[in-house]
């Protein structure tokens, strides 16, 4: 995997879609006159046995959700820990007491992906996905067809809270993943779990299309029920002014500000849901008025001290640590996510409060008054920023770069001056969003101390 992470094995359509005999809709998606220049072939590889496992996963964790209470652990945790210790090489000789079990990191998975594979995993099922490395070195993530396809029941679990359902039919496009990047894999596929409905991944970059207006025409023709993507991609899509009627937009990967959310909802006339997910274990929760509502009873969530293997008391803020999942190629025990929040349980449901996808960063005014980045996030969230970077130099000068097609640098300076009590020097730049962005996730950084 270190030599090349590009696709290495070409499967036939029969291998990609064992349960789907009629591929006419797939061919229509791929051969349409306005179709993009797809560069990859994808399929869910679900046969009858694998599909039954996905449906069983939904039945177990979707219909009735049982989490855990304060001071308790989930009922499945003991058995899960025993299975990991027995079958996963990385966890051997680390003790059997969960309370004293050490945390693991992204670097552990990056260096030793093979050691996290259960001895009971079927190597013929192996699939590999890798992250772009925007938050660090590239990470290979191993999984199988069942754990991959289980993202759909997870999405349905979120949609249920909004009284939204996905229509399952071989003649409809269920989901389109929208990208606005220089380069990414793109494909048209079908989902056996959704009874043959179409799944698209497209890139709005004009170089991926034969004619300038093909992206708009193609999306309008197939009118996906659900649009997924990040705020950058959605704002690039908004620039095309497509006539679409999605049931919802699912935003992930980057922080979704209230301003961007409001602008998207006003245009598309549907809810825009802010998802929190990790490549390592897929969807975890979605933003609500109380915090990010957790949707996965098969994941146990804890809050740890950032620097020491110490679990923090209930309600304290620290690093989110995850245990669980159904992936035999990457079972997680106390995996440090690199994200920070506090955990609250309301009416039997866990919430991630003030979730920030970066270490908390302290900024300083010229007169040494401390400013927490969470306060900055709360103020900037009112603007339609699709993303931003904010850095404080040694002389305390603030360097700010934002991505938006309507916010001005003057607005940013005004808000930051208000937060910093006009006791700061600010250089702000706003970069326009296009259909071929090369933008990392929003981040804070400082040449001073970090909390």
Automatic annotation (TrEMBL):
SUPFAM superfamilies tied to this protein: Acetyl-CoA synthetase-like (SSF56801)
InterPro entries in alphabetical order: AMP-dep_synth/lig_dom, ANL_N_sf, CapK_Type1_Caps_Biosynth
Residues passing through the membrane, by range: none
Domain AMP-dependent synthetase/ligase as annotated: residue spans: 127-324
Protein name, per record: CoF synthetase
């Amino acid at each position: 995997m270190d030599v090349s992470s590009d696709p290495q094995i070409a499967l036939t359509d029969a291998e990609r879609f064992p349960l789907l005999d009629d591929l006419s809709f797939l061919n229509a998606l791929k051969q349409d006159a306005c179709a993009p220049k797809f560069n990859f072939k994808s399929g869910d590889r679900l046969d009858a046995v694998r599909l039954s496992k996905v449906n069983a996963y939904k039945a177990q964790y979707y219909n009735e959700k049982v989490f855990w209470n304060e001071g308790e652990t989930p009922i499945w945790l003991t058995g899960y820990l025993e299975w990991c210790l027995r079958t996963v090489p990385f966890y051997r000789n680390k003790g059997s007491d969960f309370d004293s079990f050490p945390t693991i990191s992204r670097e552990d998975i990056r260096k030793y992906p093979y050691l996290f594979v259960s001895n009971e995993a079927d190597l013929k099922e192996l699939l590999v996905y890798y992250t772009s490395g925007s938050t660090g070195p590239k990470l290979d993530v191993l999984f199988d067809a069942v754990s991959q396809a289980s993202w759909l029941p997870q999405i349905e679990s979120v949609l249920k809270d909004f009284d939204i359902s996905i229509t399952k039919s071989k003649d409809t496009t269920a989901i389109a993943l929208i990208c606005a990047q220089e380069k990414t894999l793109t494909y048209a596929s079908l989902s056996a779990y959704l009874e043959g409905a179409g799944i698209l991944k497209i890139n709005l970059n004009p170089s991926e299309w034969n004619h300038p207006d093909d992206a708009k025409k193609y999306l309008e023709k197939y009118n996906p029920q659900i649009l997924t993507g990040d705020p950058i991609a959605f704002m690039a899509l908004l620039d095309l002014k497509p006539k679409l009627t999605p049931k919802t937009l699912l935003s992930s990967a980057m922080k979704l500000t209230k301003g961007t959310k409001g602008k998207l909802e006003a245009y598309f006339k549907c809810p825009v849901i802010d998802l929190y997910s990790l490549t390592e274990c897929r969807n975890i929760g979605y933003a609500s008025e109380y915090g990010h509502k957790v949707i996965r009873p098969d994941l146990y969530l804890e809050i740890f001290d950032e620097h020491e293997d110490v679990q923090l008391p209930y309600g304290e803020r620290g690093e989110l640590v995850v245990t669980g999942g159904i992936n035999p190629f990457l079972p997680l025990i106390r995996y440090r996510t690199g994200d920070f929040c506090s955990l609250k349980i309301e009416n039997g449901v866990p919430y991630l409060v003030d979730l920030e996808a970066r270490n908390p960063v302290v900024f300083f005014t010229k007169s040494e008054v401390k400013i927490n980045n969470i306060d900055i996030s709360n103020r900037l969230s009112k603007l339609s920023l699709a993303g931003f970077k904010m850095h404080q130099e040694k002389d305390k000068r603030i360097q700010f770069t934002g991505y938006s097609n309507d916010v001005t640098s003057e607005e940013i300076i005004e808000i930051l001056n208000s937060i910093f009590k006009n006791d700061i020097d600010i250089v702000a730049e706003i970069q326009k969003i296009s259909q071929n962005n090369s933008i990392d996730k929003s981040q804070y950084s400082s040449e001073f101390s970090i909390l």
